[in-house]
Amino acid sequence: MLILTCPYCGIEADETELASGGEAHLTRHGPGTSEDDFSNYLFTRQNPLGVHFERWRHAHGCGKWFHAARDTGTLEVFATYPAQTAEPPKTVCDAIRKRRPGWTWQGTA
């Protein structure tokens, strides 16, 4: 069972108390962008076996959205952090690299 700690209220919640919101850190495209950019935003998602960043809502708790960094193959949770971030915080990336040496986020060190 997947257990995540809400970064706002600090409660460890299992997946039955949470609502999945899909992939985190997507770039939203506004008016004036190409149809390809908008189509990619709507339909193109990563589906890796390994490290993945997801949005979750503490539905049966504080109700707030947050991000989780976890391994999709092992359900190992590296960290949870507030949703109001454009990319994973350095501390989260460092925690992942500690357990997965050589890992990079979107090809950056």
Automatic annotation (TrEMBL):
Alphabetical GO biological process terms: tetrahydrofolate metabolic process
InterPro entries: SoxD (IPR006279), SoxD_sf (IPR038561)
GO MF terms held by the record: sarcosine oxidase activity
Gene3D superfamilies the record matches: Folate-binding superfamily
Protein name, as recorded: Sarcosine oxidase subunit delta
Species, as recorded: Pontibaca salina
